[in-house]
């Protein structure tokens, strides 16, 4: 029986499962889409129970995609990072929907906290993250207030707070409650220098430590599976890591001079460092991963890239992304239109909650193709902004920009990214 590793990537829009042989070759795969709901303006949620069922489906598809029988030696998890949910420890029943990283429900709380300069600076220095609704801390604080006796139950340990990797492990095992350093560092509740949940931040936001999971290394056997879909019991769950961190590691980010850009609904531009870098407002400082050693990361989180292109596509009435690409190709290369895709504020390096989207440079000669091209170019400009910011902080020169994600299949987009960033930097 062929021995394989099962890798599960739980993203914002899909759950993907891969079977890898001992040489790292993918021999089986399965992918299942996830639904996203928008209950009201600014709110973005997903169904936690659907995620578990879609995990089972994607695993079954991967196992069923090959003719031979396999023996799964271990399971590795990567996941969308800042999305969070709360559930009941005794029953595993979700107490909230998955509150997406895209959700802006805590904008007002973030704005109030930002007015306290001392606390705002402390959060930045402790967690490496700017106060922004993308990160779970403020959304968890609000969720506890909305759950009957939420704070009391959380203090007793009756409530579990976890990012998606924690929820996945809980359901795949016999209720193992744990997270890894990379995901913990994205909650805005974790002191990345001391590597502990930060009591000062927790106290200010009213989040009890008892409701948070223990933090372990990204490469660490946390437990064994129960029967889970087609999976048998007793398979080690051997690693968990945030998806952007996993991408950086896969690109060889543990070597100096490597920066990676992940293109998706939003985008992440990241570089790893073996020591804690200086902490600044424009970009995030995070824990890239922890195995035998701990690597920190410099990262710029861009809120709208792929989603900005898709929004423009829908506004223009274009049926498909392929058609959108064809339309953009028809634009005059010297067109004057620019798009600022602040559809729910701006992320790195601006962190402007009040920013709104705008097309500028419109003329009587402007065509739909110019708007389409401007949408694609908005991605390039945002990635370049963060790239240059990271370049200022790295002690060594950048040797390569590695890219991943669906939009990288667009040759024009990648060549244009090279011109906007790499050629100028070199």
UniProtKB/TrEMBL annotation:
<dbReference type="InterPro" id="IPR000577">
    <property type="entry name" value="Carb_kinase_FGGY"/>
</dbReference>
<dbReference type="InterPro" id="IPR018484">
    <property type="entry name" value="FGGY_N"/>
</dbReference>
<dbReference type="InterPro" id="IPR018483">
    <property type="entry name" value="Carb_kinase_FGGY_CS"/>
</dbReference>
<keyword id="KW-0808">Transferase</keyword>
<feature type="domain" description="Carbohydrate kinase FGGY N-terminal">
    <location>
        <begin position="4"/>
        <end position="250"/>
    </location>
</feature>
<dbReference type="GO" id="GO:0016301">
    <property type="term" value="F:kinase activity"/>
</dbReference>
<dbReference type="Pfam" id="PF02782">
    <property type="entry name" value="FGGY_C"/>
</dbReference>
<protein>
    <recommendedName>
        <fullName>ATP:glycerol 3-phosphotransferase</fullName>
    </recommendedName>
</protein>
<keyword id="KW-0067">ATP-binding</keyword>
<dbReference type="InterPro" id="IPR018485">
    <property type="entry name" value="FGGY_C"/>
</dbReference>
<feature type="domain" description="Carbohydrate kinase FGGY C-terminal">
    <location>
        <begin position="260"/>
        <end position="418"/>
    </location>
</feature>
<keyword id="KW-0418">Kinase</keyword>
<keyword id="KW-0547">Nucleotide-binding</keyword>
<dbReference type="InterPro" id="IPR043129">
    <property type="entry name" value="ATPase_NBD"/>
</dbReference>
<comment type="similarity">
    <text>Belongs to the FGGY kinase family.</text>
</comment>
<dbReference type="Pfam" id="PF00370">
    <property type="entry name" value="FGGY_N"/>
</dbReference>
